[in-house]
Automatic annotation (TrEMBL), chains A, B, C, D, E, F:
Its EC number is 2.7.7.56. Signal peptide: none annotated. It catalyses: tRNA(n+1) + phosphate = tRNA(n) + a ribonucleoside 5'-diphosphate. It comes from Bifidobacterium catulorum. Homohexameric ring arranged as a trimer of dimers. Phosphorolytic 3'-5' exoribonuclease that plays an important role in tRNA 3'-end maturation. Removes nucleotide residues following the 3'-CCA terminus of tRNAs; can also add nucleotides to the ends of RNA molecules by using nucleoside diphosphates as substrates, but this may not be physiologically important. Probably plays a role in initiation of 16S rRNA degradation (leading to ribosome degradation) during starvation. Transmembrane segments: none annotated. This is Ribonuclease PH. Residues 23-153, 172-239 form the Exoribonuclease phosphorolytic domain. SUPFAM superfamilies: Ribonuclease PH domain 2-like, Ribosomal protein S5 domain 2-like. GO terms for biological process: rRNA 3'-end processing; rRNA catabolic process; tRNA processing. InterPro entries: ExoRNase_PH_dom1, ExoRNase_PH_dom2, ExoRNase_PH_dom2_sf, PNPase/RNase_PH_dom_sf, Ribosomal_Su5_D2-typ_SF, RNase_PH, RNase_PH_bac-type, RNase_PH_CS.
């Protein structure tokens, strides 16, 4: 880490929005943003704004019945004008696109990665992440915000006697952040303008203990070396530690 | 239920939320709520919260080409946890439900009712109304908020030289409000708890000049008389006049 | 168009088809038009021709089970060449259009408005309205014809001991008619040629007792005043009284 | 069943409806049944009742452009209560079933089999066959009725100068009839009650010249021999000759 | 085309691939081609290559429950590059085309035609025929190959005690072959190049006993006479006898 | 399970199929497996068997027109009985599942990662990967096989003068392999039985130069540390080097 910071300090790279290469955009996590859901969080990472809700329901889908285990699943979507050009609604087109499917599955896996399904019992938590405004990093913001909504939903279930208070349903925190290589330079937390010019793009979900839940690195435009991978993971670790601090802070404010 | 009924029986009817029968819920209209759309409004009517965006694009759909006329259309949707029980996404179900279709069409007609298509020229404005939280009156809140977003989009197009500044594209204001008969008593602006027990339910869209753009009254549970219709329209007129004052106030704050 | 306009200007307005402004088109109601359904009606209003069937089945949809209540629902559709230009089948397009949804829901609400669900018990009546030829007023003809099919299906169920003979399942008649303002003049029962030039268009469903079940007035092209609303409702009342007489006549002929 | 079987055992087989084994059900062909289509025919074969329309449009689908050839296509559908049990609409289910597809393709092939695509030029004729009431033989009735609608549409196009009067677009007549083996006995024109107990079932489309356009024989329940095939084709020839006489008679009545 | 035509004119007709008019293409039937299915067959008829699998499952679809009868069904599909031009996947288009439906139903009927549903008991066999390479005759190759997969699945079920060993579930063999008239000459087993120029095209499924299960003859381009039908059936009988010998040979090799 | 676990405990870990932890399953790459496609490869990795075809077409999708750049895209699918239990066809269900979408996108990105879109010019290559038999690692086998099909399609285009011979369209090789942690032990190339018990599962696509195109590591069941990541990448590098040698060998055999 120190090495990277040192290297980065020499050139003193400045990004379009004035951030240092290892600096997150301003993050704001608003809990209880709407009243109906068991967990409802608005997360803002720079201009990216995602509404994350967690729905707790007793019982599990049929294929999971009588297993004694719970289930956590996620759905991601973008409002039509989250983006600078309007995108048609998937409901109107009558089918879900590949990108939506891919991201929904990613979010679901990350959250399941920190939930003890046995402790959850035969209950289901459905996560919905709806992007109100998109400026890069919507999938990682979704994961980070969804964790807080999940924590609130579990707390709600405990306070409503749907889960025993002493069960440790959530085994660890989880947050995620994007990193990428732009113009040969590894950087943390890419907004859209950077993301679209990145040669390599990686999303990293980490636990509070510092282990990985999911790594997705893609280099459609220029393959990346193992050394670059190392640098990217260093940045991602730094970003995730900071995001997790904000998650904890938000969850302590009640 | 019993409590509400009892309350309604007293001379001076007081509603569950303490309002008088002819009183609107608190309304808040926030313009420029997101940055990407040409018009972006968050409208809050009590707990009902709808994000209304207006997308201005040059050109019209194929069937409208070479007519010299513009087009305005609308799409309405609810986020899964806008409601107390989670509703499945229409994108996941692969089809749009009848209610969504019905409301989208209503919103589109109401806005077209105040737009001069010749003045708009061959340009299109797409309205998106996404309900973030639903507590009754989501379709009327959508119309009221969408009008403000529409006005902003037209102003944007003028300032970007896509419409000539002196064209009067918008002929009049439009707002909408719900009214209904509960326990024999006509009332203004029903939240969910009242809406679900209303015998008659009516949505009324009016222009600034006080004429009707759309009246939809439905009495699945008990037919209504012409006298009741008159009382409901009186309430709706009062409500719409107040909503229009708020629209004007919002549009004057820049 | 010019011809029509000129005709409308004269004192004694005569319509393209020679009717007075408050005159219905010729109506013919043929019961038992096909043999399979429990109720089967062909209704003809001028050139508009709709086949209305009522299917009586024991049991209700799952969400209604164990409520002790029945259910009435409706589906509306147009054959491809009901219109002068062929319209693609919704089955081929793979989805139901907004207009179809909107009208199906309207028909369903109107019929439910006169059915006592408790008296119907846990039975379902499905109404199908298929437009064989369309010349304006297809949705109102559907409601008027569907009522007769519904009455036949209830009678069938009673004669087959699926409903007790003394239960009053149908509380009142219901019929519907369109009215509109053409060139400033309110008129009753608009055929396609008039409907397409109407500034205001309203569909009114009434009970035999003269109360409203549904009012849908839309003024995409020119808002309407409360005075015009009054005149339109007068015409609609006259039209509905006449339609109800024809319904009763048809039901008495066995 | 037993009764029918017993009846069939007697020397002079009499069918449930009193017909001889080689006798068609009563056929009625009504031309100009609705006004909008270029060809509109109601065909009734016993209780089976199909509305056949032909839509003539200038131009051909894209894949056929600049070929100098025309195109004829067909769509078949059943109204929900054409049958004794209501069948769900394919538009509501969101997809077309295999049976519908199979029959639509059959009808299209049969009509194309008698049309000279060069003489038709780059014009399209769309056939719609909507079954209003089904009592067996709906696909063969559709073909027989559609031929008459097709002939009317071609005549319409000629009288409207969209086809030159001297072009022989239709090369020959086409009609179709079902035959089947019931209880070992070949029979002509099966209504539903017979069709459902047939071991072998065959649909035969023939030209006026007596050649075959399509033969579809299926023996899910008991294979058939070549001798039986011969007998079935004899019956089909007789039936088709009679149907073609009725087609000619209908077309001569104007 | 000219070359082929010239060749066909000579006394001893020789086909593009050198075969006599009554000669099958080389056939290869490979059993146990994959390991997972209860029956798995690769059938090659010339260049046409179809993977046929049979899935045996205990229980039947809901509509068949408590009937004591089994069920056999089939699904046919083509891989995108089975053909010389790539065809879009039906999964991507979101719906199954008419041709696929038609062929799937044909295969299902042919196999059901030789299965004793009572002997099968309440078990289901699902046939999947996936065309890996298409050079004409894919539907008939599917039927011929599927029969072998079906036989293997029944044997598997017997050896796994899911069917009693002494039950004769399969009553007879079934195979299918295409025949057609090219340039006035009836021919057996048409590859794509011949199929596309055939005036008449017929698919004939026969049992080992020599009876017909299904005959589908279509003559979109030139009607066929009864004499031609006879010749085509002669060729089809010869072809099917040879195919059945190959099926038996394959089933004897274990 | 117990047996496997015990085996893994011994010093020299032996896997269920006898392989060492860093050993690939036997791989077979068959080029020109079918004749129609421009590239057609059957790849077998143990029992996993995938048919990979590459379709070369001139021109690009509309959104890419006039860019001077080519396009490469991929679609992945499984035949219904590739798996031990039959899975329903996505064409029958009417929609593509999330897993299919996710894998199709992965394959597309990996191949685009080694193609020079400028050198390809405005041409498109569509990759189809159809899994005939699935035993783990189907997505990585697809990538490895698709690369060979892609190379053949490019060679085909050059020999057919659709690409200039001296253009280096393919910049590098690409192959992919799965690695995972089972019972704490990193292993290479997991078959289904191992994959289903892996705590961490990673797919790694590498170029011939040893750089990464895509890394997807997921740890739904137990997060993984950076040290484990290192070990997994070492295994993946070894596997990919071996797979690339086999790709080269296959491409040299003509």
């Amino acid at each position: 880490m120190v090495q990277i910071k040192d290297m980065l300090d020499v050139e003193q790279t400045i990004r379009p929005d004035g951030r240092a290469v290892d600096e997150l955009r301003p993050v704001r996590i608003t809990r209880h943003w709407t009243e109906a859901p068991e967990g409802s969080v608005l997360i803002e990472c720079g201009k990216t704004r995602v509404m994350c809700t967690a729905t707790f329901t007793q019982g599990v889908p049929r294929w999971r019945k009588d297993s004694g285990l719970g289930w956590v699943t996620a759905e991601y979507a973008m409002l039509p004008r989250a983006t600078s050009e309007r995108t048609d609604r998937e409901s109107v087109r009558g089918k879900i696109g590949g990108r939506t499917h891919e991201i929904s599955r990613l979010i679901g896996r990350c959250l399941r990665g920190v939930v003890d399904m046995k402790a959850l019992g035969e209950n289901q938590i459905q996560i919905d992440c709806d992007v109100l405004q998109a400026d890069g990093g919507t999938r990682t913001a979704s994961i980070t915000g969804a964790y807080v909504a999940l924590a609130d939903a579990v707390a709600w279930a405990k306070s409503h006697k749907m889960l025993r208070a002493n069960r440790q349903v959530i085994r660890d925190q989880v947050s995620a952040v994007s990193v990428g290589v732009i113009d040969g330079k590894p950087m943390l937390d890419l907004p859209y303008v950077e993301d679209s010019q990145a040669m390599t793009d990686m999303n990293v979900a980490m636990t509070g203990a510092g282990a990985f839940i999911e790594i997705q690195g893609t280099a459609e435009h220029r393959p990346f070396t193992r050394a670059e991978l190392g640098e990217l993971l260093d940045l991602a670790e730094k970003g995730n530690r900071e995001l997790q601090a904000m998650q904890r802070k938000a969850l302590n404010e009640d």
